[in-house]
Amino acid sequence: MHPFADNTLALLARGYAWAPGLRRRHGDGPAVPTRLMGRPALLLHGPAAVDFFYDERHVLRHGALPGPVLDTLFGRGAVHTLDGEAHRVRKELFTSHLMTPDGVDALGRLACEHWMRALDGLRGHQAVLFDEMAVALAAAACEWSGLPWAPGADLRRLAKDCVAMVDGFATPGPRHWKARRARSRQERDVAQAVEGVRRDKASSRHGKGTTVVEAVAAHRDADGSPLDLHTAAVELLNVLRPTVAITWFTTFAAHALHRFPAAREKLRRDDGAYARAFAHEVRRCYPFVPFVGGLAARDLRFDSQDVPEGTLVLLDVPGHHRDPDLWPEPLRFDPRRFLGREPGPGELIAQGGGNARTGHRCPGEDITVHLLATLSATLVDLEFDMPEQDLGIPVSRVPTRPRSGMIVQIPSRITRQASAR
Question: What is the number of domains present in the chain?
Answer without folding.
Answer: 1
